[in-house]
Structures
1.
Amino acid sequence: MTSVFENEDLDHDSVENSMQPADSPELRALYEGFDAEHLMPLWTQIDDLMPMSPKPKAVPHVWKWSTLNALARQSGDLVPVGRGGERRAIGLANPGLGGRPYVSPTMWAAIQYLGPKETAPEHRHSQNAFRFVVEGQGVWTVVNGDPVRMSRGDFLLTPGWNFHGHHNETDEPMAWIDGLDIPFSYQNDVGFFEFGSDRVTDYATPNYSRSERLWCHPGLRPLSGIQNTVSSPIGAYRWEFTDRALTEQLLLEDEGQPATVEQGHAAIRYVNPTTGGDVMPTIRAEFHRLRPGTATPARREVGSCVFQVFEGTGAVILAGQETRLEVGDLFVVPSWVPWSVQAESQLDLFRFSDAPIMERLHFDRTHIEGTDR
Amino acid sequence: MTSVFENEDLDHDSVENSMQPADSPELRALYEGFDAEHLMPLWTQIDDLMPMSPKPKAVPHVWKWSTLNALARQSGDLVPVGRGGERRAIGLANPGLGGRPYVSPTMWAAIQYLGPKETAPEHRHSQNAFRFVVEGQGVWTVVNGDPVRMSRGDFLLTPGWNFHGHHNETDEPMAWIDGLDIPFSYQNDVGFFEFGSDRVTDYATPNYSRSERLWCHPGLRPLSGIQNTVSSPIGAYRWEFTDRALTEQLLLEDEGQPATVEQGHAAIRYVNPTTGGDVMPTIRAEFHRLRPGTATPARREVGSCVFQVFEGTGAVILAGQETRLEVGDLFVVPSWVPWSVQAESQLDLFRFSDAPIMERLHFDRTHIEGTDR
Amino acid sequence: MTSVFENEDLDHDSVENSMQPADSPELRALYEGFDAEHLMPLWTQIDDLMPMSPKPKAVPHVWKWSTLNALARQSGDLVPVGRGGERRAIGLANPGLGGRPYVSPTMWAAIQYLGPKETAPEHRHSQNAFRFVVEGQGVWTVVNGDPVRMSRGDFLLTPGWNFHGHHNETDEPMAWIDGLDIPFSYQNDVGFFEFGSDRVTDYATPNYSRSERLWCHPGLRPLSGIQNTVSSPIGAYRWEFTDRALTEQLLLEDEGQPATVEQGHAAIRYVNPTTGGDVMPTIRAEFHRLRPGTATPARREVGSCVFQVFEGTGAVILAGQETRLEVGDLFVVPSWVPWSVQAESQLDLFRFSDAPIMERLHFDRTHIEGTDR
Amino acid sequence: MTSVFENEDLDHDSVENSMQPADSPELRALYEGFDAEHLMPLWTQIDDLMPMSPKPKAVPHVWKWSTLNALARQSGDLVPVGRGGERRAIGLANPGLGGRPYVSPTMWAAIQYLGPKETAPEHRHSQNAFRFVVEGQGVWTVVNGDPVRMSRGDFLLTPGWNFHGHHNETDEPMAWIDGLDIPFSYQNDVGFFEFGSDRVTDYATPNYSRSERLWCHPGLRPLSGIQNTVSSPIGAYRWEFTDRALTEQLLLEDEGQPATVEQGHAAIRYVNPTTGGDVMPTIRAEFHRLRPGTATPARREVGSCVFQVFEGTGAVILAGQETRLEVGDLFVVPSWVPWSVQAESQLDLFRFSDAPIMERLHFDRTHIEGTDR
């Protein structure tokens, strides 16, 4: 499998296309026949259709949180939230994807904004969704009737076909990011959608959702929940647990014990406790912490991912181009684009990706530059 | 899960979008800000992005084999086969997909044509491929060095990253259909490609490939092949076995035994013998036989599929529109479009689909009209 | 599958054995021939060999903790702990199993006792082991070099082939129960054993083991531990989490939410976080809490299990016979023996069983009396 | 994991048991207390209970087919077949297993004999069963109402809880071997049993069972049977397929292709076509063919197996002791006993084992002498 990396110069461009016939009236007639019959020849398309390695139209891009946040606030002033539009969410539109609201070919990423005392009405859809909170608090998301508090650092799930709405209990607005598989669902025509209650079904504001009270006990599984579920039953993965897990990994590394993925780089994956696998069938979510001064080796991966800086400063190098990062900044890594991250301070990064799609369909590949992996 | 079918009239169109603000200079400035920062709001996009049920851009369509075959023959006269273009394959381009060579959002289907004594050079790619032979013989496809005879009714595999080339041993041309996951791979940026030998690596013409000699013994597995493989190790699924399996199902039905999927409708799935599952991670393949006079109930399924008539005459009803079918005709069923087939004579149908994608990602749904399934 | 329960009167005893031939010299010669050639006929054995439903030789039995504890203390005075005998463990010997140290045909259960400042030397074996602590503290078990604190209510693992030893840091003795699959391993000849260090390899006494620091964060998985493991990587399941999980289930029940397995009966299973499945391939472990006054319906299950009372008082009815229960008491339920538990006070019960064996080999069956399950 | 093989001399015998206290009145009182309370100490039992490597009580043994067959014929004369005794089956009783009718701790193997026109009545049981036919023909086994022909070289299944009976259509007696998991079921108390019809429910004598007509088409799966089943749905694995599969492996080896498990040694495993895995949850079945002069390396495996010579002559070396083999001879290999087979002529061997138990519970280990595997 490694030869593809070594022979990347032997590509379509280096090979004469021996199948390009000379122009002739007969050929034109043939091509017109193709058009009339809804046909297209491979021999004129193959360079684009079947590249030597992934050539994504999506491009690497960084969005600044300060800019996103300001535009979201303005939306809060100008655009009401309610039925029909459903959410005051502003999607990151990859500059390479021709004006579609897709952060990558598979994923939607948006900043969602809810003003003081506002409610976003309930609905459900096949698309799998999560939220991640880089700052703020005061909103509860109600998932199938279970109110889930949203606070800084929390990762929250609304897997496909679960009713959900949000409401802001406070006098302050709140913004967070949403991630969904909308582009994948749209492209492959898999989406169903249903309206629910115009108000959320339960305005209670408990500290912990019922899903957490049932499921968030390490290594324990309720006997009433012994059937595996396609997606995680946990509504919220709390920051306190994520922070503690990463802290312990770095402490263990200090003690000379195996715990981190590479020197100075702690990381956890959010998982479905019924299987140990990804939280949802199409979306992987992880949290990474780099010690000050740590730089990850350049990696290429099949599939796309998005990072958001949660804490600290540093830089990302995407296809050789470096961009400085601050809290809240988001960047997308399209398929097979080399990326590495450098931590100035301790750097905390939330990450999500379409890796479950790639793995379940056996398209996953990783290459770490300078290695034969 | 059934409410979505019952409430299809309660859709986006029936709901006022309460989030459409009145035009104003401030709103225009906001929207310009979105554009400048590569952002797009959900509230103007949701009707298209998240329909109440799949609204595929792909449309149902029937291609006549007689037309395809004639154009393929003309291509044989005008277009050489060889390195660069790689294959004399003419892709079915769904009329709804804007001039892309995609039969559906996920799948490529093409007629491939190889003239007397011609060779299509070896290459390999991540994309999964199969061939199905509706007529003719005389070509061998060489898969990782194993020559595989291609004859009428055979279903042949070249799973991702296996080197393969073809050569025609005879003085007659041969045409068959190719199916691949090219659109899915292209859309999601997963494809790798590598050139191999300009000639096939083995011009032997055995009746049975080594893969068949090792693997095609019912219920038996070679101990040397006891590790499971991602895709089926079988190079060719021979018509004689398919025909016999279907014949037996109908005979068993005659004897009052459970064997068919529904009255008068025999069917088999081609499987990976190491797992009992689909032959490749992205493509399902099946063969269906209807007794004369049998009509299947109208079905909607998430995901797209393509049928080719192998033998007999009948009709297909796609979204309410009936088209007559003859040997070799192909038709595509986009996601969630109701379809049914009616057999005039005994009707033999080859079918392939993206069902493994839908099932592995848990987007699969089926609705049979007139039932609560 | 239910007919077996309804027709239990139609058993071997109700059927004349039509194959019992009259005695004759020829028959005797035949039977002698069998003996000489190491053969035995089925027709004389079948009633015993293949009963209508499981007829375990193991019998229900209750062991009193006060008695066990007293004998363990005496052993502490009389028997040194060390290499060769390896552990000061006293196995529960089911009265029906003919003097073998088996609590059931598959499982070993013992009280283990470690005096002040004593060390039990390191070794490893194929047999899977756990410990459960009904009282006391002060011992650390060192599993593959990782010191794991043992305290009241903790459930601790040493899966097959992990080196482990114990040491008591205090001036007080400590006793706990061990559970292993020794009888199963012995019967089926699967066991390997290896001596390790005569002292434990690390006398540190941390509050939390490295395994817990890496793995005990709910819903989070270290990226460094992303490969699944046959057994759970968690060294200790702490009482505080078990207690909290059960408390929350009962609170949720109070709130009218689904959370308990049946009214007044909260329960968790200890699981392998990499799979969501049982902690070890042969042993299931659970903890049950009954509200005061709760009585479980009589259940029969294929496979055997052992309970230990952790807190509270109540009674168990085993095959119709009731025995009062106090803290620390242990009882065994052989296969298919009906059992139910009644809580006087709130009753906390630790349970372990061979259910993973039964389920993986598809022998599992459950019958709840008075239902058609 | 290899150290256990290298350090086998460091075993219990080489270590002084430091826990054997000096005899004293107090110690005697303690041990009497243990007895009275149904307790047994580990420190007096561990050498036997937890050996350094498996020390099976079962011993290697060879049974001669000529002897078995003669005794079975005598049974046919003296013992009627019918309800109660159920089958005229004579079990191989391992000389090491104390007079139990067990060929190994997990498995039953028997010669079953059915005289001209006799019927063995229908019943069903949890125990999994197969038959293998080393000679003869003329019996049909009726499995859940499906008549299955039994002929030389066929391997036939009656998985747990399927009704089955047999009848001999001819004027000649027929004998074959039965394999079941009776000892495992008995030991672990998992067995249920139910009587069925006193006569078989269908006396038809078709060449192929319905199960074969539905399932025995290589690489094809009926859509009506798309749900996986715990055990194989195939009633009979015919000799013609087994023979052909092995013949092809040796031909491929002649052609320099990878196909055999080792030089001169072809082998297949019988599998469940719905999963590619073992035919039943507790029993593995294989067929091996050695070229003349081939000798397999000495292997030790955890778990026990039985071989029957189907054709040819050769020898088996069991724990260093060689025995000559002829057609029909059976031998048992207890756990971890080294075995190798030598072919004089071409040697065809049927084999069954408890390997699925070992693998599902992760006790499997193999050691090939002279290697580090």
Note: The CA atoms of residues 122 and 165 of chain B lie 4 Å apart.
2.
Amino acid sequence: MAVIVPFESPSGASIDGLVGLVAADMERVNATILSRTGSDVTMIPEVANHLISSGGKRLRPMLTLAMAHLTEYSGDGHVKLAAAVEFMHTATLLHDDVVDESEMRRGKLSARMLWGNEASVLVGDFLLGQAFRMMVEVGSLRALDILSAAAATIAEGEVMQLAAAKNTATTEDEYLAVIRGKTAELFAAACEVGPVLADRPKAEQTASRSFGMNLGIAFQLVDDVLDYGGKAAKLGKNVGDDFREGKITLPVVLAFRRGSDSERAFWIKSLERGEINDSDLDHAIGLMNKHRALEDTISRAHHYGAMAVDALALFPASPMKTALEQVVAFCLARSH
Amino acid sequence: MAVIVPFESPSGASIDGLVGLVAADMERVNATILSRTGSDVTMIPEVANHLISSGGKRLRPMLTLAMAHLTEYSGDGHVKLAAAVEFMHTATLLHDDVVDESEMRRGKLSARMLWGNEASVLVGDFLLGQAFRMMVEVGSLRALDILSAAAATIAEGEVMQLAAAKNTATTEDEYLAVIRGKTAELFAAACEVGPVLADRPKAEQTASRSFGMNLGIAFQLVDDVLDYGGKAAKLGKNVGDDFREGKITLPVVLAFRRGSDSERAFWIKSLERGEINDSDLDHAIGLMNKHRALEDTISRAHHYGAMAVDALALFPASPMKTALEQVVAFCLARSH
């Protein structure tokens, strides 16, 4: 069921370069994360660490560190901002699990299955509060502005998704607006604060933001595809989750638009009305393959990946720049 | 079923003085609230305004304005900070309703009953993000520090309450730690940022914080009493909600400690195991009356109210100071 798409240069599609270049800083980020989830209220570190230590790649905080390096920032603030970005991400995951009623996250039972919705909501709030405290400690009002705007935009994107939920008439543009908000905005903010801390020219800040935004869109589109044919074990979620939850993603948008009346009736029945039987997921994937919906979603992802790479063009060649280009390739290659 | 307690000076127990003195600023706060709940995602203003315009007293933002006046702040920042405080409060209410599975809030169906848990979680997140954006716009890192620390502490208090939930062995000290976090901290922060903006001496900042903290504790204790015998219509919630939810509040803590073995068995059965029949609420109130648990909770509230008034002592006499003293009396007099 894996999706096979042509991918030009699978060599160099790796995050290893990035991981190596930010390793020393990441150790400090991890120590910060550990200390800032501490609380006398033992349920807080339990819930937070269940998710934080469950083997996420920590791509977002690595991006903050990377862009700070790329723009030759020499201070300390990027470590706390990177930890804050990871906290914002973790808070979003905790709240998402409640919203989506998810049972699994990263191959483990989700926090809400273990501690309940209540703890997921409240520990998420705690982490958001801690994230803002760390940002305040760094003391850059510009960085605070970027990250607090991102927090509002992320929530707005999630509400947008909720409003569009189960609506098969969602357009590709509407769907893009949703994922810009709910996913790409945090990538963009995580990247933008690096050159902001380094007090680099506006053009470099904008370029960094653009890199993050387009990488984030590509990342989400590939995620959408993986949900219909990916390596579930590796992802830690089940193939078909989006389908069962009636989530409208780009593969659905494309298959619906390109489908016949009877096919559209199938999408409406399963996604809008939630009437799903055992063979329906296979049927859905069959329709997506028939209309090249998964392949074309990957093509769209490559488009945004290319924009991300181009956004980096104004930075001179460096090992970090190469590593960031490889991260784009890695995110796209996950679909293999 | 109303609780009758001696109250020394019911005259002057009013928020009218405060309301009058901050009226002009409150208009600007209300306009700010309205504009900052705006979003192209129509569900956001719908959900937010359902709660924000449902007739809360807006006591917390009024306190921010009042303390800014009292300390002769001459700028504009207090308006945005007051709106941010109200957003933080509203976000907490939205998330609380999900955590408590509440059906009513301020006499109306709760947002989660009308739009679902998902919308309540996400719109809460959006309001928190907008609150931080406004704080950033004001540009005071000290105020940001105070309010972001409050956000983390509030969530911590809520998790603490969750962990103590249904545990009849909770001590009075443990319960005080919970309400310091979940309720009083926001009162404290709302008051503290006034003199911080005005750049007043540390002693005035601490006094303002102390006023808010003790007022907040008194406020919560009276709320706890009202839940066992208050004016439900006025409160907009039902008498006995805390009891039915197995919430441990000070009246329960006192009645449990002072009760016989068979009475303790009753509290454990109803609050820890949730086995409640129609006559149990009356029985619970009977036990509380027998042990003076409601009266003594009110006495405790008066103790914190007195501390709040004393905290104001270092400020010279002024109409605003008198109005703030009357607010304390008002909060206590709600129990009549």
Note: The CA atoms of residues 227 and 239 of chain A lie 5 Å apart.
